[in-house]
Amino acid sequence: MAKLKEEGVKVGLAVIIVGDDPASRVYVNNKKKACEEIGIYSEEYALPSEATEQEVIDIINTLNERDDISGILVQLPLPKHINETNIINAISYKKDVDAFHPVNVGKIMTGDFDFLPCTPAGVMELIKESGVSVEGKECVVIGRSNIVGKPQAMLLLHQNGTVTICHSKTKNLKEVTKRADILVAAVGRPKFVTADMVKEGAVVIDVGINRTEEGKLVGDVDFENVKDTAYAITPVPGGVGPMTIAMLMKNTVKAARLLANK
Ligand code: NDP
User: Fold this and answer.
1) Is 197 exposed, middle or buried (0-12, 13-18, 19+ CB in 10 A)?
2) 2-97, CATH topology level
3) Where are the CATH 3.40.50.720 domain residues in the chain?
4) 142 Cα nearest atom in ligand 1
5) Which of 73, 75, 145, 244 to mutate to test the pocket of ligand 1 (most atoms within 8 A of CB)?
6) Does 152 sit in the ligand 1 pocket, CB within 6 Å?
7) Given CA atoms 163, 109, 258, 16 in this order, what sign does their dihedral have?
8) Fold type of domain 118-240
9) Residue range(s) of every CATH 3.40.50.10860 domain in the chain
10) Model pLDDT for residues 16-61, shown as the tens digit of each residue
11) CA-CA distance, 153 to 120, in Å (whole number)?
12) For strand 71-74 and strand 12-18, is the pairing parallel, antiparallel, or unpaired?
């Protein structure tokens, strides 16, 4: 960061949050905290749940023009009356540090990308950390959302994995997941992946963040049972969550560099 400052590169992240969803509040606070820790300037726009789509777009338009803001993030989900696609499309793709804008999504498809979506990029870092190469491996992603599942599959494919995407209509899920050398769970269902679904020695990455009735955070993988079957496994909390934030910081710095042509 000091080097960037010396070079006159302004790094700033603007976060927009609409409404009072407690989970979103925690995520936004964690992102702001990470900015503080590494010296990225950050701004928060906290709007009431009744804020209109146009109000959010007006803020985005202003932020798009500011040269001290390199990244713009709108915390999802948004209240039902606001169209998420319209909001994502309003963000300059050059400041789209979540990589949700159609231009960035297209770039991820072709492999010619500036930003990688934060959660799938964090997962790739964790796989790398396990020491297991993706090339030639059977990779199974459970979940096909635009935010996690689909881009995750694409990143695994870019690293020459043989990739299968599963979803709620997948037949014989267990048979498919059992083939996986690398299994990524992004389902949103507590302890959905059980030991009998996992191949001995697999790398298991748990993207899920679910809150139990007792208020405890649990992942999509039944960690206690799967840990003995897996070669490597990520915990929840910990694991993918902090990596997602680290990748957001990386994207914000990269956006600043690209905007400054450095
Ligand atoms: P979505 O609800 O958008 O997608 C869930 C996916 O799981 C869908 O594709 C759905 O299939 C599939 N699915 C649901 N039930 C089944 C089933 N029985 N069998 C197979 N597939 C099933 O969730 P997200 O992708 O946004 O998030 C997934 C999880 O990851 C959530 O817990 C979320 O909180 C967490 N998350 C964590 C992040 C982090 O930083 N760690 C960041 C983002 C998300 P279908 O498409 O057919 O409905």
Assistant:
1) buried
2) Rossmann fold (3.40.50)
3) 118-240
4) 21
5) 145
6) no
7) negative
8) Rossmann fold (3.40.50)
9) 2-97
10) 999 999 999 999 999 999 999 999 999 999 999 999 999 999 999 9
11) 9
12) parallel
Instruction: Give the pLDDT confidence of 102-144 residue by residue, as tens digits.
Output: 999 999 999 999 999 999 999 999 999 999 999 999 999 999 9
Neighbours of 224 (CB within 10 A): 9
Q: How far is the CA of 165 from the centre of ligand 1 (A)?
A: 12
The tokens for 244 are 């997602």
Cα–ligand 1 centroid distance for 137 (angstroms): 23
- Residue 124 near ligand 1, beta carbon < 6 Å: no
Tell me, yes or no, if 159 is annotated catalytic. Answer: no
Locus of tokens 């998420």: 84
Query: If you ran DSSP here, which 8-state letter would residue 33 be given?
Result: H
Confidence (pTM):
0.96
- Cα(259) to ligand 1 centroid in Å equals 33
Q: Helices (DSSP H) in 114-260: which residue ranges?
A: 118-129, 149-158, 173-177, 223-226, 240-259
CA of 64 to the centre of ligand 1 (A): 30
- Whether residue 31 lies in the annotated active site: yes
